[in-house]
Design brief:
Pathway: One-carbon metabolism; methanogenesis from CO(2); 5,10-methenyl-5,6,7,8-tetrahydromethanopterin from CO(2): step 1/3. With 259 residues, this protein is mainly beta. It is built from 3 helices and 18 strands.
C-alpha cells in the first residue's frame, strides 16, 4: 500500500476546493508531481505544496493501492475524494463540506466530524465518520433528481437536517440522532437512525427508514402493524400517502402531535 501524508501548513480562513486530493489523481504521480497539483483557495489558484506539506512513498502505484492520510484541521478543505473510484482516504480529524461527492468506490474514514453534503450523489464505496456530520448527508445537490445511488455511509455520532434527501439507493446509518426531515423524497434507499428524528420520510415514494428512538410521524403515513427487529418493537407505517408513496417507515416511539 502506497501511503501519502497531507498536512495543512496553516489554518485556512477561506475554503480550499480540494477535489484533486484523491487516490485516482495521486496514484500515477510522484511526490514532486503531487506537490505541483493546483487547487483553489478562495479565488486564488495555488499549488498543493503552497498549502500542505506532502510526504510519503514517492513511486507511482495503482489507485486501489493508495492510502492518503489527512493529518490536521481539514474543516475548511472541501470536496476531498470527489468522484474517487478506489483506494482509501483517512482523515485523522475533521473534514470539510462535500467530502466524497459522486464517490464510486474505495473508502473514506473520518476520525473527527464531517461538514455538510457528505457523500453527495455517492454511487459506491464506503464512508465512515466517528464524530458528527452536517446537513444533507447523501443528498442530491440543487436540481438533482437523485442523491446517493449506492454505497454505504456510517455516522457514529449524529447527523443534521435533510439526511438522505432524494436518496435513490445505498444505505445510510446514523448511530445517534438525525435532524429535520431525514429521508425526504426518498426514492429507494435505506436509512437507519439509532436515536431520534423529526418528521422522517416526507414525500417518500419508496425505500425504508428505521428510527430506533423517538420521532414525530407525518399524518400522511398510515399505520400498518408492530414488528420485531433485532429485539426491538417498531411501529410500521406506509407512506408518504400524499405522494402515493409505498415507502416503509419504522419507528420505536412515536411522538404525539402537540407533545
Amino acid at each position: 500500500m502506497r501511503e501519502i501524508r497531507v498536512v495543512p501548513r496553516r489554518d485556512f480562513r477561506v475554503p480550499v476546493e480540494a477535489e484533486k486530493i484523491s487516490p485516482d489523481i495521486f496514484a500515477p504521480l510522484t511526490i514532486e508531481e503531487i506537490r505541483k497539483v493546483e487547487v483553489w483557495e478562495g479565488n486564488r489558484k495555488q499549488a498543493l505544496i503552497d498549502l500542505f506539506e506532502i510526504s510519503g512513498d514517492g513511486d507511482p502505484a495503482k489507485p486501489e493501492e493508495v492510502l492518503i492520510k489527512l493529518d490536521g484541521n481539514f474543516s475548511r478543505v472541501k470536496r476531498v475524494g470527489e468522484k474517487m473510484t478506489c483506494g482509501r482516504i483517512g482523515a485523522l480529524g475533521d473534514i470539510g463540506m462535500h467530502a466524497g461527492n459522486g464517490m464510486a468506490g474505495g473508502e473514506i474514514a473520518i476520525k473527527g466530524s464531517a461538514g455538510d453534503w457528505l457523500g453527495r450523489e455517492m454511487r459506491g464505496g464506503k464512508i465512515t465518520v466517528r464524530g458528527d456530520a452536517g446537513d444533507y448527508v447523501g443528498a442530491g445537490y440543487r436540481g438533482e433528481a437523485c442523491g446517493m445511488r449506492g454505497g454505504e455511509i456510517l455516522i457514529e455520532g449524529s447527523a443534521g437536517d435533510y439526511l438522505g434527501e432524494h436518496l435513490c439507493g445505498g444505505t445510510i446509518t446514523v448511530l445517534g440522532n438525525a435532524g429535520d426531515f431525514p429521508g425526504i423524497a426518498n426514492r429507494g434507499g435505506v436509512i437507519v437512525i439509532g436515536g431520534d428524528a423529526h418528521l422522517p420520510g416526507a414525500e417518500m415514494a419508496s425505500g425504508t427508514i428505521t428510527v430506533r428512538g423517538r420521532a414525530r410521524v407525518l399524518p400522511s403515513y398510515q399505520y400498518q402493524e408492530t414488528v420485531e427487529i433485532d429485539g426491538l418493537s417498531l411501529k410500521k407505517f406506509l407512506g408518504d400517502l400524499v405522494d402515493n408513496g409505498k415507502g416503509e417507515l419504522r419507528v420505536a416511539s412515536v411522538e404525539e402531535r402537540g407533545a
